[in-house]
Amino acid sequence: MGSRMTGQDAVAAGIDDMYDAFLAGDRHRFDSHLHPDVTTWETHLPGPLRTRAELDAYRASRDAAGARPSLASLSTQDMRVDVWDDTAVARYVLVAVPPDGEPEHTRVTDVLRHSAAGWLIVHHHAEAVRPDRA
């Protein structure tokens, strides 16, 4: 009898896969974890992006300017996932290590909904952590 992945495990695996896709430059796989109406609030963004179309427009502008982040590694730490029926919340620290740079820590909260497509992020909130508060 095979083991069945819990909702918490599936959410955590999906988030880790999303960041692996980012490192691999696989935007299609990265975006497969995002709901079309995802809101994206991050410290470095020009403001809240309220749909994936707005996120796509931001990324197109950033990439055209040659400003896509280059990272040696990208990983989650201290992840906690709670699941209630078809809703989940994941909280974790994202550690981004630029080539030849110091690790950067970001506190992240993702809200996800489960559908036929699996667990999709509907709200992503990320805040840079100051080095003295890491």
UniProtKB/TrEMBL annotation:
<dbReference type="InterPro" id="IPR032710">
    <property type="entry name" value="NTF2-like_dom_sf"/>
</dbReference>
<protein>
    <recommendedName>
        <fullName>DUF4440 domain-containing protein</fullName>
    </recommendedName>
</protein>
<feature type="domain" description="DUF4440">
    <location>
        <begin position="16"/>
        <end position="121"/>
    </location>
</feature>
<dbReference type="InterPro" id="IPR027843">
    <property type="entry name" value="DUF4440"/>
</dbReference>
<dbReference type="Pfam" id="PF14534">
    <property type="entry name" value="DUF4440"/>
</dbReference>
